[in-house]
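User: I'm new to structure prediction. If I give you an amino acid sequence, what do you actually give back? Let's try with this one:
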Amino acid sequence: MIYICLPVHDEASTVGPLMWKLKKILTDPEFRRDFRLIVLDDGSSDGTHEVLERYESALPITILRSERPLGYGRAVDRLLREALSQTPYPKRDAAIVLQADFTEDPSFIVDLVKTIEGGADIVAGVRSEFEEPTPRGLRWARRAAPWVLGRAHREAPVEDPLCGFRAYRLIVPKKALRDDDRPLSTSSEPWVANVEVLSRLVPHARRVEESPLALRYGLQVRPSRFKAVRALRELFRLRRSPLWPEPSEAT
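Assistant: Good question. You get back a string of structure tokens that encode the predicted 3D arrangement of the chain. For your 251 residues, that looks like this:
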């Protein structure tokens, strides 16, 4: 079973088309997999929840709702916990986390899933290129981020620890939360949350692999919420953190 985990906040304009795009990918005869969508409506105020409810009879979907915004890190934590509560086979099943605004092309799910099925425990998306048009502030922040993180970036187990489009074999978060039940991340800044989640889960993975992907900002319906200075300021707080302990033997 593949659990597609979607944190959404004011995504009424994109979440519906994304539902159908995911269904098309996951039911394609050349790739067909059992799947369930797990969507967390993180305090949306634009009708996102009403849009989601229209798909309950058409798709295998679990809709979670927080009346007040949790922030990206806590949203991902809650989604992964929900996937764990549903799976009867955490050693086999996987969760895939992606954004609901179409900046992350859902067609790359195919590569993530196949890599998990090939034996990886974590598959991290790696930004291979920016497609036009991409916000100038985002390009600038991406170039600056490795310097801002410093050693924390250089020693990361993947080339792009900022990207949150990832697949996790569910036994990995199960082990991580068994040892430490704190939220996998509490940061509202997605780049920071992606680094923190990876830091918590990597020690419990036997194999970590990467899969290239392209980010597409031209398909966004709403303006980007990304703020370069805020993202880099929050990343700087991780600069001296001991993020990457040595992976443990199968715990």
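You can read the tokens as a compact description of the fold. Here is one thing that stands out. The first strand starts at residue 2 and ends at 8.
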